[in-house]
Every structure is written in C-alpha cells, then in structure tokens.
Amino acid sequence: MNISHAIKLCRTARGMSQMDLAEKANISTSYVSLIEGGKRDISISMVENIATALDTTAEIILFMAADKEKLVNIDAKFADDLSMSILELLSAKKSGVEEARL
After folding, report:
1. Helical residues (DSSP H) of 1-75, grouped into ranges
2. How many Cβ atoms from other residues are within 10 Å of residue 54's Cβ?
3. Global pTM?
4. What is the mean pLDDT of each run of 10 residues along the chain (102 residues)?
5. Torsions phi, psi for 39 (to 5 deg)
6. Helix, strand or coil for residue 66?
7. What is the C-alpha to C-alpha distance for residues 95 and 80, in angstroms, rounded to an integer?
8. Residue 85's domain is classified under what CATH number?
9. How many domains does the chain have?
10. I want to staple 58 with a disulfide (CB 3.0 to 4.6 A). Which of 51, 66, 71, 78 is the partner?
C-alpha cells in the first residue's frame, strides 16, 4: 500500500501545494512533506482529515493506495483505469471550482 503516493496524486490533481493542503488539514507543511515522502505512517483518522481537506473521501485515497495485485476481485487494468478516472474527476472538480470563482 502506498498511501503517500495516493495523497500526493490527489493533492496535485486538485492543484494544491503542500502548504495549501497543510492549511486545509490543519497540519504542518513539513508533516505533509514527510507523509508524501513515505517517512511517516499515518492513522486512518489522519487519512480522513486529509481526504476532507482534498474534498474527497478516505476510501478513494485508500483504493488508490492499494497494491493492485491485492485487489483480487478487480482486474488490475480496470483498477488502474479507475484510479486514472478518479484523478481526472478530481482535476475536473478543481477546474469547475476555479471557473465558479470567475
């Protein structure tokens, strides 16, 4: 499971910096950096906190973090395609928010 990579993917899809995420999640920028660098394990409650700050769910982050070969009931290609679709939706949602601000 690579939760650090999933969080970084979701953050960048949202167009957020580590500082933006830290502010929204009420944690330090250095802690975000340590999480994304895989240097800190995080609790489920912290995943939920970060997911809320990213305007997504912990379940989506955990799915994206799952080792595809361990998703025994889901074809690996389908899991990859689904992850890419999630990132596209996160990016599209970010664009929609930006357009609404104009």
Report:
1. 3-13, 18-25, 29-36, 44-53, 58-65
2. 23
3. 0.77
4. 90 94 97 96 96 92 80 70 78 56 36
5. -95, -5
6. coil
7. 23
8. 1.10.260.40
9. 1
10. 51
